[in-house]
Every structure is written in structure tokens, then in C-alpha cells.
Amino acid sequence: MVGGESIVVPSVQELAKEKRTRVPERYVRTDLEEPPFVTSGGDSHPQLPFIDMERLTSTDFMDAEREKLHQVCKEWGFFQLINHGVDTSLVEKIKKEFKDFFDLPPEEKNKYQQLPGEHEGMGQLFVMSEEQKLDWADMLVLITRPIHLRKPHLFPKLPIPFRDALDAYSFELQKLVLKLLDCMAKALKIDPNYMKSLFEDGRQDMRMSYYPPCPQPDKVIGLSKTLRCYRNYDPPRSK
């Protein structure tokens, strides 16, 4: 299997509704390690780097923020983007539609279940065998851009409010990514048009994850190491 293809697995959301006191053995992870997060003082939360989009486009702060972007990309490889310019009402709308989708009855969500040999749809990614350990999460994975790559049995069949919000949101993310790539190109001192030509028609996937309550949260994981490297778009957050 390649590209995230996976075998069909049970719905974790439905398992959680059974009010178990212990999680099924297939979800128990004994290989978990403490993440090497950087912390500040007594704060147990990770101090992740952030980039301010407003500063990147401001005459007064552009150079300093561009240099910060350059260093963060070299040293971390990822960051949180703040003041991104995506309309707050759209962000809240897509969050609501995500939740409403996962609140649908199982028989409705099953219409979007992964097909054998495919990575898109409801399920989990990179599950290769019946013995493999599973994440404590349900996922919906969709190709959102370019439009001609959308699977006709998935994206067009979504509930209309969800589909319309996802279409608008993915379009805004595409514009935002191109702006960010332009800034990266300038930080690298390469032609922004060359950078744009590499990514303008690139594929955009979205993974929407649902993490239900767990009776033994210290025994499970919601996002495996393999998936942390998978292409993903979460709703951007304002500062």
C-alpha cells in the first residue's frame, strides 16, 4: 500500500459510546515516548514557533519577520501562523461543519468510508494489517484542491453546508499558502514566480480528526508518528 492507503478499521467514536472502562488492546500503546518539547519555566505546554503574517507584509517589520521565517523553517520545519487574514466567520463555520459531520449517525458517515486501497474517506491511514496498533481517533481525509482531483463519490456527496464551507475554506488556504510561499522565496532570495510555478497547481489534502473521550488517555495516542509527516490542514487560528 502507498500514499496513505489503509484497510478498514472500526469507528473509535462508536467504541467510545460503549462507556468502556478500558480501551481495546489494539489501541493500547506501550511504545509511547515523552515528546521532546521545549518548555518555558514551569509551563508544561510546548513553546512552538509562530510567524505573524501581518508583520511579513508590513513595511516596518517585514525584514525581521522574514528572517524569523527563514530560521524557523530551517530549525523547526513547521510553525503556527497568526494574523493570517482568513475570515474569522469562515474559520468558525468550518469548525462547526466539522463537528456536525462527525455528529451524523453512523449509517450516514459510513457512506464516506474508505474504499479498499484508497486513503480518502472515513477511517485511518497507514493501517497495513489486522494486528497493527491503531490511533484513538476517527479521520476524514479528502483531496480538496485542485477541484478536478476531488473524488466524485466523496466531496460532491458531502452535506451541502459542509461541502460549501470546505470549498470556500480550501480556496482561502490555497491563497494563503501562495502568499506564504512568496515570502519564503524572498527569504531564500529566489524568484517568487519560480516558487509559485512549483506549487500553484499542487494538491491539497485535508485531514479532519475526531478524538472521542478515552477511559485510559495515558495508554493511547491520537496521532501516530507516521501521520505527523502526512500532508494536513487544520483550521488556522487567530492570535
From TrEMBL:
What's the protein name? Non-haem dioxygenase N-terminal domain-containing protein
Record-linked Gene3D superfamilies: B-lactam Antibiotic, Isopenicillin N Synthase, Chain
Domain Non-haem dioxygenase N-terminal, residue spans: 48-156
UniProt keyword Iron, yes or no = yes
- The answer, when asked if DNA repair is one of the entry's keywords, is no
Instruction: List the InterPro entries hit by this protein, alphabetically.
Output: DIOX_N (IPR026992), IPNS-like_sf (IPR027443), Plant_2OG-oxidoreductases (IPR050295)
Q: Name one GO molecular function term.
A: metal ion binding
Pfam families on file: DIOX_N (PF14226)
**What keywords appear on the UniProt entry?**
Iron, Metal-binding
